[in-house]
Amino acid sequence: MDFVSIRIITDDIARLVGFYERATGVRAHWSTEDFAELRTAGGTLAIGSTRTVALFAPGSARPADNNSVILEFLVADVDAVHRNLTGFVTDFVTEPTTMPWGNRSLLLRDPDGNLINFFTPVTPAAVEKFAR
């Protein structure tokens, strides 16, 4: 089995796709006006409108209602990401901080309130863990 993607359901797909394109620097691939994907070497962030929920099971997913998942993006320089997003992101949860496990992390919320962690490994063990 391969983990392929995670999907966010939103009421405003254009706004959320635009946010993630700016925040990650990855251009979205649109399949329909209700579904887009930001594809990276490590996985895909899919974004679907609330209209797509009915195709699976009506009411099974609610937009802007996540309180348990953190989307994580490995970046070359988390401090540069922070500088780039300052003035664009309205909800930084934490400034860049070096965590006990060796990653320097920046935690913020997207326009729907989902938590995002941009991180850069900084200790030798963390760098080794994410070496490609």
Describe this structure in words.
The protein has 132 residues and is α/β, with parallel strands linked by helices. It has 2 domains: 1-54, Signal recognition particle alu RNA binding heterodimer, srp9/1, CATH 3.30.720.120; 68-132, 2,3-Dihydroxybiphenyl 1,2-Dioxygenase, domain 1 (Roll). It contains 4 helices and 8 strands; from the N terminus they run βαβββαβαβββα. The longest helix is centred in the first third of the chain and has 12 residues, at 13-24. The radius of gyration is 15 Å and the shape is globular. 23% of the residues are buried. The model has no long low-confidence stretch (mean pLDDT 96).
Q: Structural class of the helix and strand makeup?
A: alpha/beta
Radius of gyration: 15 Å
Number of domains: 2
- Say what the CATH topology of the largest domain is: 2,3-Dihydroxybiphenyl 1,2-Dioxygenase, domain 1
Q: So what's the overall shape?
A: globular
The fourth-level CATH homologous superfamily of the largest domain is 2,3-Dihydroxybiphenyl 1,2-Dioxygenase, domain 1
Helix content: 10-25%
Q: Count every helix, treating DSSP H or I runs of 4 or more residues as helices.
A: 4
In round numbers, the mean pLDDT is 96
Q: How can the largest sheet be summarized?
A: 4 strands, mixed
Number of strands: 8
| Largest sheet, spatial ordering of strands | 1-4-3-2
Level-2 CATH architecture of the largest domain: Roll
Low-confidence stretches: none
The rounded distance between the terminal residues' Cα atoms is: 21 Å
Query: Strand-residue fraction?
Result: 35-45%
Top CATH class of the largest domain: Alpha Beta
**Helix and strand succession?**
EHEEEHEHEEEH
